Amino acid sequence: MKKNIFINKKSYLYIIITLIILFVSIFVSLNLGNSDISIKEVTEILLKKSDDKIKTLIIWNIRLPRILSAILIGGSLAISGAGLQSIFRNPMVDPYIIGTSSGAAIGATLAYILKLDMIFIKIFAFIFALISSFFIYFLNNKNNQINTLKLLLSGIILNSFLSSIVSLLMILNKDELMNILYWTMGSLNSSSFKDLKIITFPIIIISFLFFLLHKELDIISFGEENARSVGVNSEKIKKYVLIFSIILTSISVSTAGIIGFVGLITPHFFRLFLGSNHKYILPLSFLGGGVFLLICDNISRSITKSMDIPLGIITGLFGAPLFLYLLLKSKK
């Protein structure tokens, strides 16, 4: 009993610390950029006490939607990764493993080749992400049972196949090569409140539905036989997790492109300290994913003033060494 109380207190402490880091990161992010705006000015603008229309426009129309998008997208990828790692019982699984990223890349590539506007690029990416992911889902859904190993392997094969098609389309359409390449490396440049109005509600609702499964995910993470012995329908839970992850990841990829490591390392990081209690792992993954992506985005737009470094490059540079460190720490 004392041990459980200690774990609960420790988990709440992690949540509080992560929230504090998140709010600090938001204020730092509002202060960063080509235009020099002090923290005092940022506070005045947020409280609507500033008369500077240009700086107000920069904060409200450019920086704030980008910050909120980073938090929501980072959170979506991280909570999806946490759920998928539980049903696969494998810490190496990330949200892109079931073909979502490569499907979105095909959609975005076709939209660029057709020279469509950014809104249609996002729509194409979202639709093709859903198609590729649900193709893998239905391909491996036989007799109302999902074989996670076959699903994992078929996802890897589809990712490889679709990535090859994207590469071929890029070579055949060299005039759009840089646009497609930049999109595949991820960016929050096009973030706006119009996008936020579309993505915020489904992300929050689905993330909440994810959280409602925390007890079942705890049980499944110890094995499907164990789950069946206590009356948990593991096949039903797997389907819920897969569908939630497909939708959240499709929203994220279509909005910001392909951003790696967020859904892989964030849940793994918190599991090292808190174990497999999904009551805390899921909300912490969401918050931690938002913090990680927001910090990476700050770095991506601070390295050079002339252009933003693609976000996927920054998450890879920081995520890969961090993941290696976490793996070595977990082995010890």
UniProtKB/TrEMBL annotation:
Q: Does the keyword Kinase apply?
A: no
Q: A cellular component term (GO) from this record?
A: plasma membrane
Q: Which Pfam families match?
A: FecCD
Where does the record say this protein resides?
A: Cell membrane
Membrane-protein topology: Multi-pass membrane protein
Tell me where it mainly resides: membrane
Keywords on this record? Cell membrane, Membrane, Transmembrane, Transmembrane helix, Transport
- UniProt xrefs under InterPro entries: ABC_BtuC-like, ABC_transptr_permease_BtuC
The family annotation for this protein states: Belongs to the binding-protein-dependent transport system permease family. FecCD subfamily.
Protein name according to UniProt: Iron complex transport system permease protein
Q: Record the organism.
A: Hypnocyclicus thermotrophus
